[in-house]
Design brief:
Layout lengths: L20 H12 L7 H9 L3 H25 L6 H9 L1 H34 L2 H21 L6 H22 L17 H10 L8 H4 L7 H31 L9 H10 L3 H33 L18 H19 L5 H26 L5 H18 L6 H22 L1
């Protein structure tokens, strides 16, 4: 009797999905856009009046070489570490630890800012006042922490849906308010002098701090050298149209009232939809806020775990940082920091403008570190190198307008260097 052995081939393994230009553009645009843009036009108008449009233009021009430099670095060094990877290559692990602390320290400020924006839109729709806005913001933060502690995160498709929703609302508000734009609303153009443009840029940097996202995604592209420049160009086009359109229509349609509202998007939508604009804008702001806060906390908690793993932060933070685990110690640190920031807001020691400026100071420091790394890693004396140098100078100028808020990234840098030195001595001992 002959026994035949039949070889059954193993089923083919599904190919690893890679980001394309469309998906990469959606993710990068989502990193740059966020709930901050729902409040920033009014904050910038309050700082500089119609001249705030200049601040938007300056930051858009500055962000072009920033985005292109980070894309070039991501193509050369594809890695999920992003700016921290570039700084590590250019200046070593101690400088990379400082950048990590800047990110980690900025998150509680940015989370409370984003939650407060959503709270203002909901409170404005319900007529609850400042106390109601703070309460709604606190609920958003608490719900996001609860979701992260349970290991629940929004899927990539849901995030893309939220990005699409934000783009649609911003574009719809701009088009709805365009017929209401009046030339008279742009005079006097610079009521507070040239310095006010720098002050507006200092708070607007909150809306331009996501360009390094493409570098974090560099390892997900099938061909980073080919796809990253295309994604960067598409993202720049989308963001430029939305930001400039929103800036011009906020000033041109609302006039002096733009500086006095907490919910500029609601006011723009009301020009065409009437009273229904308030609940619609509130619902959109609440969804966007929760999605952004949830994502910030998910990423920051893992950043804290990575810092603990690498010896740049207390080792206990590394617990739960593995795949499929929940970094609860890192989340606990973030919860305490968010509670401290929220308490300052409740007591009147800080408001939304102050929080967003503080967040911008930390994120601008990260951007500057990335640009300085680009000067060390990119080919010298090329057009890209010179444009990165120019952006580094402009970013430094924006940081100068942060004033005393620069003490926050300075303190974080001192703490990071001090901890790394202390940890090094313990290991040597």
């Amino acid at each position: 009797m002959t026994v035949r052995t039949t070889h059954v081939p193993a089923p083919p393994r599904p190919p690893v999905r890679r980001l394309g230009v469309a998906g990469g553009t959606a993710l990068c645009a989502g990193a740059v856009l966020g709930p901050g843009v729902l409040a920033l036009p009014a904050l910038a108008a309050d700082a500089a009046g119609p001249a705030s449009v200049l601040a938007w233009v300056v930051l858009l021009v500055t962000s072009v070489p920033v985005a292109v430099s980070f894309a070039a670095l991501g193509a050369r060094f594809p890695d999920g570490g992003g700016v921290a990877t570039f700084v590590h290559r250019a200046a070593g692990p101690r400088a990379a630890a400082v950048v990590g602390w800047w990110f980690y320290g900025a998150v509680p400020l940015g989370v409370v800012s984003a939650a407060l924006i959503g709270g203002q839109y909901v409170a404005g729709a319900m007529g609850w006042g400042d106390a109601g806005a703070t309460a709604v913001g606190a609920l958003v933060v608490a719900a996001s922490f609860a979701a992260n502690c349970g290991g629940l995160h929004l899927s990539g498709r849901v995030q893309l849906l939220l990005v699409g929703l934000l783009v649609a609302v911003l574009l719809g508000a701009t088009l709805a308010a365009a017929p209401e734009v009046r030339a008279a609303h742009f005079t006097p153009f610079m009521p507070h002098g040239w310095g006010s443009v720098g002050s507006a840029a200092a708070v607007l940097f909150f809306a331009f701090a996501g360009w390094e996202a493409a570098s974090h995604l560099s390892g997900e592209f099938a061909d980073p050298a080919r796809d990253l420049p295309r994604v960067t160009a598409c993202t720049l086009a989308v963001v430029s149209v939305l930001y400039l359109g929103l800036a011009v229509t906020t000033i041109g349609a609302l006039g002096p009232a733009a500086a006095g509202t907490d919910t500029p998007l609601t006011e723009l939508l009301a020009r065409s939809t009437g009273t229904v604009a308030r609940p619609v804008a509130a619902a959109v702001a609440l969804f966007l806020t929760f999605g952004t806060v949830n994502t910030y906390l998910a990423g920051a908690s893992r950043l804290g775990a990575a810092l603990g793993r690498d010896g740049a932060a207390p080792r206990r933070l590394a617990a739960g940082g593995g795949p499929g685990q929940v970094p609860r110690y890192s989340l606990a640190v973030l919860a305490v920091a968010c509670a401290a920031v929220g308490t300052a807001v409740t007591l009147g020691a800080a408001d939304l403008d102050r929080l967003m400026r503080a967040t911008s100071a930390c994120l601008a420091s990260v951007t500057l570190a990335g640009l300085l790394s680009a000067l060390a890693l990119l080919p010298r004396r090329t057009l890209l190198w010179w444009s990165a140098a120019a952006s580094a100078l402009l970013t430094t100028a924006v940081l100068a307008f942060a004033g005393t808020l620069l003490l926050i990234p300075a303190a974080l840098a001192v703490a990071a260097r001090g901890f790394v030195a202390y940890a090094g001595r313990r290991r040597a001992g």
